[in-house]
Design brief:
Elements: H1 20-30, E1 34-39, E2 42-48, H2 49-54, H3 65-74, H4 77-80, H5 94-104, E3 108-112, E4 118-123, H6 124-134, E5 141-148, H7 155-165, E6 170-176, E7 182-188, H8 193-202, E8 206-213
Antiparallel strand pairs: 1-2, 3-4, 5-7, 5-8, 6-7
Amino acid sequence: MDVNSYMSTDLITIGPQTKILDALDLMKKHQIHRLPVVKGDQLIGLLTDGVISRNTPSTMTSLDMHEVNYLLNKTNAEDIMVKKVITIHKDALLEEAAVLMRQNSIGVLPVVTEEGHLVGIITDKDIIDAFVDVLGFYKPGVRVVVNVLQDRKGVLEELTDIFSELEISIQQIAVYRKQTPIQVVIQVESDDVTSIKKELEANGFEVGSIMFKEVAPPK
């Protein structure tokens, strides 16, 4: 999967001269936590609620609310925005986006072209949505975890052949190698838990868990 499949393209942006008070109003109105700063369609910075908080007098100061609002209304986005923005291309893999966010302790990546034109934005929540989609969480079917006790060539082919013989379509498949035994998680389009478990075990596979799952509504 690539970034283009999960990025948001319906963007709320601001210009460098936008007042911080207006930026805060936009964030509140659209329930967002960051605003790309653009000049034309060129990304020049990023303004987040965290950046604003770090550049706003705290409640511990002697300033009253009117004075704080005055300062916010005198400060432009370009005065405090992040200028060295970490970005990504729309054709990049989602894994690359996740690694960039992890390595830099950030939760958002503006998506830009080679020329720096802003075309989208992808967040850590989008990455989580992609993970949920990959595992087929919102699809009904049987979820089976097969424990592979010894790593060897042809295991996935054997498993797919079993479901082919049962005339059952595989919806999603994932392999987890960070533990022993290796786990192969398969979701199939079926509700026949008994037959699937019996056939896997008859072919020498250890079934770690198996269950039928109804559709889980998105939250």
